[in-house]
Amino acid sequence: MKYTEQKRFEFLFSIDHSMRLLLAVITLFFSSIYTYANTDGGIQLQGFIKNESGYVVDKIEIAIFKGGILICEGKSDRDGKYSVTLPEDGKYHIIVGNGNNNYYTINDTNIQILPLKVFRKDFTLYINKQELQHKTTRLLEAHDHLVKNPMNIYYKGIFFNRFPRNMDEMLLFFSPRIPYFNLKKESEKVITKYVDTKMVSDTSYFFRHCAIIMGYTEQVDIKCLKYYSARMNGMIFTNTKGFFDVLHTYNNNDMRFLLNLTVKGFTRIQLDESFEKLGAYIPRVYAIYKEVDKQLGIK
Predict the structure, then answer these.
(1) Given this model, what pLDDT does residue 19 score?
(2) Are 103 and 127 in contact (CB under 8 A)?
């Protein structure tokens, strides 16, 4: 009797032990699925690209190599975010910022990518302070030449060409957060001269303006952007057709973004005197303007 009870106990214990072991294996299996992705669809390498002052940097190229072969490449978006797909885990050679002389290129030959569904890797770009000083000094020189020779067409062209071409350069040239030599003290006079002096056609101004404000994010904190935008809105008000012509070259999402930032700077009366009169000029632009106008609810 005792022998039978003992065997029964040993049998039940062995079942219990086997079940616990099976449960542990199942838990480990599903845990590994959660942590480590099935990489048949690739590994999403994602992150943000910022500069040393904390500003996100858009349109920065990132190239991924393995064994000397280019695997994939991409660019950061308006918010500094990039996303590329890698075929597998392992060590990669990553180059960030190649071709952008405002920053020193990141060239890291030993980045270990783990077999995760999404692997995050942020990058910090360091400002090329010599290049920044060179560019801002030349812009200030062009400004001073134009002040002394306000009718000189040659100086007008030089000044326009040396002015920032995107939001990243606006921040590098004028932001007090940049720890190196730039035009933070001269920002108001340089920007005022840029907008108030008729140097090129309105169309050229509008293309440059759109390229700048396309890089706008909530972190943009330079005060000079307000009076720059206010002066550009004055030009848009007097030549809304020309602005529509430029907007027409953008896709709907980008156009919506540009109009949202622009319309905010107008009163209801100004909108009625400019944008509202162009319903039949370029219907696609006007339709998106009306959508933005309704959303903002300007009275």
Answers:
(1) 54
(2) yes
Give the DSSP H/E element, type plus range, for residue 96: strand 90-96
Total count of residues recorded for the chain: 299
Q: What is the CA radius of gyration of the chain?
A: 29
Q: State both tokens at 279.
A: 């319903």
Q: Which of 222, 227, 221, 239 is nearest to 277 (CA)?
A: 239
The phi and psi torsions of 220 (rounded to 5 degrees) equal -70, 115
- The burial class, CB within 10 Å (0-12 / 13-18 / 19+), for 41 is exposed
Please state, in angstroms and rounded to a whole number, the distance separating the CA atoms of residues 206 and 247. 9
Specify the pTM: 0.83
- Reading the block at residue 154, the tokens are 């040659």
**Residue 259: its H or E element:** helix 252-263
Upper half-sphere CA count for residue 49 (Cβ side, 13 Å): 27
Instruction: Return d(Cα 45, Cα 70) in angstroms, integer.
Output: 15
CB 240 within 8 A of CB 278: yes
Res 41: pLDDT: 74
Is residue 120 packed enough to be buried (19+ CB in 10 Å), middle (13-18) or exposed (0-12)? exposed
pLDDT value of residue 25: 44
Residues of the chain with pLDDT under 70: 1-40
Task: Kindly report the backbone phi and psi dihedral angles of residue 174, in degrees, each rounded to the nearest multiple of 5, phi listed first.
Answer: -125, -10
Q: What is the pLDDT of residue 280?
A: 94
Q: 3-class SS at 54?
A: coil
- Backbone phi and psi for residue 119, each to the nearest 5 degrees, phi listed first: -110, 120
- Residue among 103, 101, 64, 100 at smallest CA distance from 82: 64
Q: What is the pLDDT of residue 14?
A: 53
